[in-house]
Amino acid sequence: MKKIYLDYAATTPVDKRVLKAMEPYFSEKFGNTMSLHSFGQEAKLALENSRAVLANLINAKPNEIIFTGSATESNNTALKGIAFANKDKENHIIISSIEHPCIVESAKWLEKQGFKVTKLPVDKYGLVNPEDVKKTITNKTILVSIIHASNEIGTIQNISEIGKICREKRVYFHTDASQSFGKIPIDVKKMNIDLLTASSQKIYGPKGAGFLYVREGIRPAPLLHGGGQENGLRSSTSNMPAIVGFAKASEICKKEMVKEQKRQEKLRDYLIKNLLKIKSSYLNGHPKERLANNVNVRFDFIEGETLIMQLDMAGIACSTGSACSSATLEPSHVLLAIGLKPQEAHGSLRISLGRQTTEKEINKLIEVLPKIIKKIRDISPFKA
């Protein structure tokens, strides 16, 4: 039985074209970018070329791209770095109630260090009201961090409007674009973004690579101290195979973005239409303002973990929520934030499409899922 992977929001396979671009940097072009000899300078050239390629995708300058080891590291650097760089002047940070766990946990840690954190509510679709941002900013606010597109429910925020408010209020604005980078157009200048997080493993690049865009003139306090790589903001020997792979993956995304987005939207809408035919099923997230590859549906009288296991036994891989925290038994904080009860949140299924997803695979899910749901509901204790 051929297995069907529908969890692309968790991670993606490395594109073969990306792998080919990476291969020389493991054993042939293996120099350290800080070395002055030809091996080092060859690696340095590849590093700067990769920086330029990634900057081009978001209309940034190459020197504004800081390479990191992951989106988690980028998000930690954005929040903690900006907080500590400005701690003598301000102490207030604003995030939304549907951020990724690495933003939530960073904010919690900063609270323990004496910073004040405000979590903004969202509506039933998961949208932050820009007016709430405006009202919440005070003269003590350092940073606003709002996720661009939700990793769980796919809702896309009005980042341009939020960024405009922050710029007018002279407050730094960061967005976690891990899910949106490479999938939808991003222009950091037009969208008034000061800091932006992106991840390689979400766009068919290797794991272990991310970047933080830092607008020129902004200087976060570094988390890592050492040899002074990445303009002193992220000391560590550059992971050249991963960085070259990340740049190649973004190049491919730029070339194929429009065509792939349309293809996935068609599959997404077809899937949603058919899943909502199942009795007592509901769409989570915005019906229109959502990523082309995201479907999040909840089913009454269903326990999510059981549903995932049953689908896996049928050869289909999906998710109940964020892959970084799906091993916990707590209901998703994102689903609770949009107004779901814990029991409803536990009955939600996240299906995320990818470059390799076919209509045949979607039809297989449409065929299998109603049978599995009926089977679970027949023995469900939730009906009582």
Automatic annotation (TrEMBL):
Top class in the EC scheme: transferase
Gene Ontology MF: a single term: metal ion binding
Cofactor(s) needed for function: pyridoxal 5'-phosphate
Transmembrane segments: none
Domain Aminotransferase class V: 4-365
PROSITE patterns (UniProt xref): AA_TRANSFER_CLASS_5 (PS00595)
Keyword Endoplasmic reticulum tagged: no
Alphabetical list of Pfam families matching this protein: Aminotran_5 (PF00266)
Name by which UniProt lists this protein: cysteine desulfurase
The species this protein was found in: Candidatus Staskawiczbacteria bacterium RIFCSPHIGHO2_01_FULL_36_16
Lineage: Bacteria, Candidatus Staskawicziibacteriota
